[in-house]
Amino acid sequence: MTETKAWSGKDFADLLGQTGVFVVGEAKSFALGRVMFDEAELLTIVTDPAHRKRGLGMRALAAFHEKAQRLGAATAFLEVSVENSAATALYQRAGWQEAGKRKAYYHLQDGRVVDALVMSRSLAE
Predict the structure, then answer these.
(1) What b/e string do you get for 61-84 counting C-beta neighbours within 10 Å, with b at 16 or more?
(2) Angle at 36 between CA 117 and CA 7, to 5 degrees
(3) What is the reported pLDDT for 98?
(4) Please, what are the averages of pLDDT over each run of 10 residues along the chain (125 residues)?
(5) In what order do the strands lie in the sheet with 113-122?
(6) How many other CB atoms sit within 10 Å of the CB of residue 112?
(7) Do residues 4 and 108 touch, judged by C-beta distance below 8 A?
(8) What's the pTM?
(9) At how many degrees (to 10) do helices 56-70 and 85-93 cross?
(10) Do 43 and 6 touch, CB atoms closer than 8 A?
(11) For residues 30 and 42, what is the distance between their CA atoms, to the nearest angstrom?
């Protein structure tokens, strides 16, 4: 798995104070997203490592889709490291498709820089 810089409590608090930002999920897995006009962005999705492979990430992702749609988004976007095959597989199972790449987007803890896949998904019913 790709290790990027961890988000701080202040990072989360700052984001949650912005218009259109929301969090959905449960204690062991959640998704943080935002809606601007008719587009949503999945900012992060987190599952407690001790509780992975139990469907919690998929449930948090589904909750993100539902909340973003209720807030008026028709399409959702995200970035994921090209090295994060577990997350990419989750997104693909949930109907996300590759829309492009961002070169040298992630700066990893080991000093490497890797590309991000940009993925999108329709939220239309």
Answers:
(1) bebbbebbbebebeebbbbbbebb
(2) 55
(3) 97
(4) 67 83 95 97 95 94 98 98 95 97 92 96 90
(5) 21-26, 29-36, 39-47, 75-81, 113-122, 97-107
(6) 12
(7) yes
(8) 0.89
(9) 60
(10) no
(11) 11
